Amino acid sequence: MATPHSTPIPPSSNPSKSPNPQPNDTSLTGPRSLRQFSLFLTGAALVSLSIFSTRRALVRRYVATVPHFFQPSNAPPRQPFSLQKEAAEALRIATVNVLSFSVMMGGGVLWAADVGSLEEGTERLRGMRKRRERSVRGGRDERMDGEVEREFGELVGKSLREGADKEKEGGKEGRER
Fold it and tell me: 72 — alpha (psi -120 to 50), left (phi > 0) or beta?
């Protein structure tokens, strides 16, 4: 029995249990979409940092080659130039740029393809591979082929009958004139 001072909580106002749980929410602002989009945003942040690092390295190299105000322009650079160090730095910068861009693109593709986890992605790839193998081997369903052939035959027959009927009508009209 309920006491006169207590009121029952309606089921729709209980925040812990929603009446219609939707784990596969496909809206753009749903938790699943935002979790997927976070990988893209992480990649975008990494791209921004790699661009900043690249700019800083280029500016540092440019400043090292600019002579002082009263230094002759034909004097050798203040710091010795090392090809090995320059090559290693260029490789490092290029690697960081490519990896950050690939993280961003991978996150964008996963978000666009609506893949939420590694297991879901592997299941989709397995399904795609099975469909491809089936089509390569010619493993089509015989009933499907029969239905398609029958429908195509009906369509062609119908169009041929309509064409013949129009031809007959056109021939009759031509004779009456």
Answer: beta
State the residue for tokens 């031809």.
167
pLDDT tens by residue, 135-176: 766 655 556 667 777 777 777 777 778 777 777 777 665 555
Q: What is the 3-state secondary structure (H, E, C) of 52-121?
A: HHHHHHHHHHHHHHCCCCCCCCCCCCCCCCCHHHHHHHHHHHHHHHHHHHHHHHHHHHHHHCCCCCHHHH
As given in the structure block, the two tokens for residue 147 are: 């239905």
Using a CB cutoff of 8 Å and minimum separation of 24, what contacts does 30-33 make?
A: 32/116, 33/111
**pLDDT, tens digit (0-9, with 9 covering 90-100), for 109-123:** 888 888 877 788 888
